[in-house]
Amino acid sequence: MYSRYGSPGDRIFDFCNYTFMIFLVIVTLYPFINTLAVSFNDANDSVRGGIYLWPRVFTWENYEYVFRESAVFHSLIISVLRTVIGTVVTVFSCAMVAYTISRPEYVLRKFITIAFILTMYFNGGLIPNFLLIRDLGMMNSFWVYIIPGIIGVFNLIVIRSFIEGLPEGILESARIDGAGEFTTFSRIVLPLSVPVLATVALFTAVYQWNSWFDVFLYNSSNKNLSTLQYELMKILQNSNASMSSNTTGGYTGENPNATQVTPTSIRATMTIVASVPIILVYPFLQKYFVKGMTLGGVKG
Fold this sequence. Notes:
Layout: H1 8-39, H2 43-47, H3 61-66, H4 70-102, H5 109-121, H6 126-135, H7 153-164, H8 168-176, H9 181-192, H10 194-210, H11 213-218, H12 228-244, H13 263-296
Helix pairs in contact: 1-13, 4-7, 4-10, 4-12, 7-10, 7-13, 8-9, 10-13, 12-13
């Protein structure tokens, strides 16, 4: 006869399961908490090591150093605009193309699908892409962040697989009522595809937020189009260069009374600054993300 807590085997299993999950949570959260502690710790004190979950010498100086330049705030605005506009345009464009190639009556859908998939395996390379962007006149332009990546093949396949799983009867009913293809797409398909669209939106937003190499290639001469990631990368490079030329162990810049930082403290601070916006957005998309991955990613 078993107790209300189950058999001994069940209790042992529950204990092992809970122990493993707690260990997994600790392993997952510790690197972020440690980075947060280093970012709030005195730079010279961080060099000694031994900081784990809490700053030993609390200070705001690392963040003051990062946000001292007005370029950081302007680049933050550009990054937000890039992320929002790029995500909306990319998700909507991928959804339209995915709906088109998901229709069995479209005779070219297999050819177009293969043409898209080939681009996942073969790429022209960095130099041809640079020459293409230059010839298209998108150098020193905000739209170089949006247009080249407007269609992502992986996102396209995920959305197409999800749309193909929708009940065909719903779409046929809309057509019988006189709805055209765009009306069917915008009023029927899009609302039903919210889970997979939220998943693709999260992928796209993370990519747009973290990108900096395209800024370096195409807009490095235009400070008004610099993004947060690129500015943070430059701050880290400057701190590394100054650290290597300074034998005192820290960097204070030209002003001896300025904030003293080290590459370690700057790296931790930059990681927190760059990660927090995405971390704040993810909880609102989590339920859609899980559902979209399970429904849209298992079909071929």
